[in-house]
Specification:
Shape: globular
Pfam family, one: DUF418
Keywords: Membrane, Transmembrane, Transmembrane helix
Number of domains: 1
Distance between the termini: 33 Å
Radius of gyration: 21 Å
Protein name: DUF418 domain-containing protein
Organism: Nonomuraea typhae
Number of strands: 0
Order of helices and strands: HHHHHHHHHHHHHHHH
InterPro entries: Bact_Transport_Assoc, DUF418
Helix content: over 70%
Strand content: under 5%
């Protein structure tokens, strides 16, 4: 049975969503570079009461990794179509390549790297590749439901003994030491990375792993149904998605931000609510983007260049943030106000968009994508980078 390949325009729209998600991930991650103590203390998701930080916590944190994870599952179905019977060996090699890349980045650049988690969950997705879209959605919903109930149960248990749920204040000495290491010499930053990466990696695996798997499954279900490639099927739902996303998801995001300033049961309840309310707001973001791209194709093209080289841009973000905030470069960690940090994020994103447009006009793949493709296909005569 043959299938019709999606049109180029629609592929660009899918890439535009990836490029858009990269911008949000950059804004979410840059806070940890700008305030190195956050990575060392891990006492709370509260980035501070500065208005800029409050906006970022509300509109960005946990929202864009939802989109990025969804797109990983969606992209997997496109790879399945392309690889055919070779999907199993190629996906195994791709996951291994992602894992090795994630370890390398985690040690050298960004302790919050998620590529190792994606590689491990990619193996589960591979094992579940033949399930029906409806089944994938049901399993994803069950995962989110169970995680939400677990957070609520933990909140109830904490309410029985409030002292047990109170988070210890971050040790100022630990924060100062982290800032000194991160902004010192390249060697001191590397020592910080090696010492902190295993702890934060475990936090990410257990904290984000179940939700990421649910989103992988949602993405796989959408990809099998070619949801983003056939917008006409759900165009009539756009107003409803926007009303629910902004009308329910946005107040939920405000509630989540408010609860991060509180210890104990309230913070856990906020996390439980955010498990599913963040999905509504993230969906509204994507639909809004697609509507903008439909009316302003130039924006879509700019984002699509970056999205087509998503892995290269993800690594590129880490490199540029390191050069600005760590001992690899200017060592500005802990020295900039939140509004200035947002300005740095905007500058980095702009640079990456321009570099992506320049590179992709003359190459079929981003540099990291080309390496992963060569490793995945394991060909004695790989396609040239150009």
């Amino acid at each position: 049975m043959t299938t019709t390949a999606p049109t180029l325009r629609r592929i660009h729209e899918i890439d535009a969503v990836r490029g858009f998600a990269l911008g949000g991930i950059l804004v979410a991650n840059i806070g940890f570079y700008a305030e190195p103590g956050l990575s060392a203390a891990l006492t709370s998701m509260d980035f501070g009461r500065d208005p800029v930080n409050l906006v970022i916590q509300t509109l960005v944190l946990t929202k864009f990794y939802v989109i990025f994870s969804f797109m990983f599952g969606y992209s997997f179905t496109m790879q399945m179509r392309s690889w055919g019977e070779k999907v199993k060996p190629r996906m195994l090699r791709r996951c291994l390549g992602l894992f090795l890349l994630g370890i390398t980045q985690g040690v050298l650049l960004w302790i919050g790297d998620i590529l190792t988690l994606y590689a491990a969950l990619g193996l589960l997705l591979l094992a579940m590749r033949n399930i029906r879209p409806r089944t994938a959605v049901k399993i994803g919903c069950w995962i989110i439901g169970v995680m939400t109930v677990l957070w609520l149960v933990l909140a109830w248990l904490t309410s029985l003994d409030p002292a047990a749920g109170a988070m210890a204040a971050a040790d100022p000495a630990v924060i100062a030491r982290a800032e000194e290491q991160v902004t010192g010499s390249p060697l001191s930053f590397l020592q910080f990375q090696v010492a902190t990466y295993p702890m934060l990696a475990a936090f990410i695996w257990f904290g984000q792993g179940p939700m990421a798997m649910a989103l992988f499954l949602f993405g796989m279900a959408a990809g099998k149904s070619r949801l983003l490639e056939d917008r006409e099927r759900w165009a009539h739902l756009v107003p409803r998605i926007l009303v629910i996303g902004y009308g329910v998801g946005l107040p939920g995001a405000v509630f989540f931000t408010w609860t991060t300033a509180h210890d104990g049961p309230l913070q856990l309840i906020g996390t439980a609510a955010n498990n599913f309310l963040s999905l509504a707001l993230s969906a509204a973001y994507v639909v809004t983007l697609l509507e903008v791209v439909k009316r302003l194709p130039a924006i879509g093209r700019s984002l699509a260049w970056a999205g087509k080289a998503a892995a290269s841009n993800y690594i590129g973000q880490s490199i540029l943030m390191c050069l600005v905030f760590t001992g690899y470069g200017l060592g500005l960690g802990g020295k900039l106000e939140p509004i200035a940090v947002v300005g740095v994020a905007a500058a980095i994103y702009t640079v990456l968009l321009l570099l992506s447009a320049w590179w992709m006009r003359n190459h079929a793949h981003g540099p990291v994508e080309w390496g992963l493709r060569r490793f995945t296909q394991y060909s004695a005569n790989p396609q040239p980078l150009r």
